[in-house]
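User: My collaborator and I are trying to settle a disagreement about how two of our proteins should look. Neither of us wants to argue from intuition anymore, so we agreed to look at predicted structures for both before our next call. Could you fold the first one, then the second, and keep them clearly separated?

Assistant: That sounds like a sensible way to settle it. I'll keep them separate. The first protein:
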Amino acid sequence: MEFLLGNPYSTPVGHCIERATDGSLQSEDWTLNMEICDIINGTEDGPKDAIRAVKKRLNGNRNYREVMLALTVLETCVKNCGHRFHVLVTSRDFVDGVLVKIISPKNNPPTIVQDKVLALIQAWADAFRSSPDLTGVVQIYEELKRKGIEFPMSDLETLSPIHTPQRAASAPEGDSTLHKYSTPAQPTPHAVPPAYTSPQVPNIHASGSINPTPEQICRLRSELDVVRGNTKVMSEMLTEMVPGQEDASDYELLQELNRTCRAMQQRIVELISCVSNEAVTEELLHVNDDLNNIFLRYESRSVVFTSCPVGGNIDCDRTVQRNVLHFGNYCN
């Protein structure tokens, strides 16, 4: 059938995807990845042309460097593109016919590829569960669980999709997922679809300008523990709060946690652009991933909560820990 439609890489977005997933790349080309998102959002045929190109790169490809790049492009597009693209990427045809096939036993892909595919399916199933026309991925997710497929992480707040750097800033070295099985390590974007609220990210150009001292690293990690604590509390509340039964004070606390975590993330993104220590950068990226996932859950459910009457109070003691991440002051 493809010969009737032509080469998927011949379209504008297809050509960009072919370049962005070329196995010769040492790390993700974030400028090109964001250009792909722009084409998808700005053209009539962008979504379906992009899906065709991604399918071509993923189907039967044993070059797992290219597969990982393609999965990163795919995830970046889900984070940054709208409903037309979501309909295609969450369909049973794509999830089962493309993504699940990648991790089938006969293909025997590396563990990192299996984990990446399963993490994407799990994250999308949770994010789009309440959208009737996007539940194909939810059905596949439930079917995989019934078959005994073990997903890499069970708590959604610990899932780490990606952090999409701003177009003006370059991705820090060592943040590519590819490092985990060849040379580059896991990136982690943020920039969510139009349906969600995107936090303000400062335009930082001082990439890799700070090599922190052991004392600074110790202080930063202590502050990151505060961020993780807030993220954990926020995740627990999202899990426990039932629309129509939540107490007004619980919802106010959830809103305050959201505001506080977004302020913390702004400083984290600054640090990612400033810090040149690879281990610290990786830790920052993972914390940023956790925040992105919790924001995705919050935004996908906040409309449901606000549209329901107030109910009972959640029986737990929760507080918002505030922290300005002073370490970020070194990024000048």
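The second protein, kept apart from the first:
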Amino acid sequence: MELLRSLEKEQILEILSDVLCSHCEDLLLARISRLRKRTEYERDDIEYYRDRFDTPRNGHAYEFSGKRYGMQDDSPRDYFQRREYGLIVERSRLGEDSSLSYSHRKRPKLTPHPDFEILLNDGIGGESPLGNRLSKEQKEGIRCSLVQRKRDFTYFENVEGRNINVLEGLELHKRVFNVEEQRNIVDYVYQLQKMGRNGQLRGRTYSEPRKWMRGKGRVTIQFGCCYNYATDKYGNPPGIMRDEEVDPLPPLFKQMIKRMVKWHILPPKFVPDSCIVNIYDEGDCIPPHIDHHDFVRPFATVSFLSECDIVFGSNLKVIGPGEFLGPVPITLPVGSVFILNGNGADVAKHCVPSVPTKRISITFRKMDDSKLPFKFSPDPELVGIKPLITYSPPHKTKTGHDNLKSSEIRQDDRRSF
């Protein structure tokens, strides 16, 4: 091959013009066919990008309707990610204006990449040199489209004489926060933990109980309200402590809330106004429970550092310290958002068995208006958040995951909860 690269074009043609055996001819024909097919895909990429970024359809520039995939094993999402990453790298390298016609550009090199590198400069991940030629709306539309959504969790149990799907209402949204954003959030949580240990957080914001047995001693940091997990020594029942003060939601967490609403993960009518951070060490757990109805549904849990299972069932059993038995374990990947609503929040109990390694979760919830702390006032930054209109409604695939389909996007197109 090295010798072939050293030859001129005319010399290569001279070699190929000589008579070849039938086997070599077949081999050469197959290679030419593969090369033509690859060229077709690259041409499709250019047409796709031109339509996608330079010629908005129906007034909306973020329509995902690709039918061809760059490699045989590519899923539509993998293909979109591979193509977008190649385009962004090429634009950043050449410093080209996104309005230039593709006939005047070098074809983008379509480079596979393990994690999508567009950062949104929204207070979570900071700005990235990749994607700096795309508008904020374009970058957010691309990132939103890459979220993998599963909403068809099913497990039927007999509850009070009725056979019902106890997982109805559960949703898993993967790849909401990329690696860089996860790192920034985790670093911030550790800063909060340090502040809590130094007594720099208000009232009962920070709690770090003594680890007196396996599964006990999980660190919690509460914002927006103080939640009492069990009847305390003063006789206060479980629920929101309306006369206790804790710190308000930090700016970084408010940015996370905005993203979840804008990306159609949480409904705009139920914007969270409180959250609890759980910092797990190896062996820590959360026992079986149903979340208190001082919080309205739905609510969201974001996972960091390591994936773990959350177990569901109408009748979960405790078989030992930190060990629980239930019919349905659901794996929560890092960077994902898990939504609890419907039967999944109110009929089925859930628990987190002892985690094998360090983990952080942040659960965002909205308080019932009648249970708000006495000194609570709404945060103006969390009022009037609207979902992206560049989001195309998903349809189910045979695997149970949602894929984006090509359809006209309407201003009032909102997913109902």
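Some points you might bring to the call about the second protein. The mean pLDDT is 78. Residues 60 and 126 are 26 Å apart (CA to CA).
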